[in-house]
Amino acid sequence: MSAINPLGRFWMVARKPWGPGSRTEPRARYSSLDDARRVARDLARTHDAPFVILEAVEIIRPDQSGQDDNTRSLF
Fold first, then answer.
1. How sure is the predictor about 9, in pLDDT bands with cuts at 50, 70 and 90?
2. Where are the domains of the chain?
């Protein structure tokens, strides 16, 4: 697992879900999109299956319950 970059952004790689019962279980995080792409390409070739790159879009903190959706922030 690489260190989280200074902005707090990170990416994860998982096998592309194939249906409602499929499980997406990323196990590592990457501090750059390029690192995640490299890993996803290697995994896709090794397993002959599609992989996706995931990135957080929002953080919901316990103290934010009930706040307007427009007041939440990412990182």
1. confident
2. 7-18+26-58
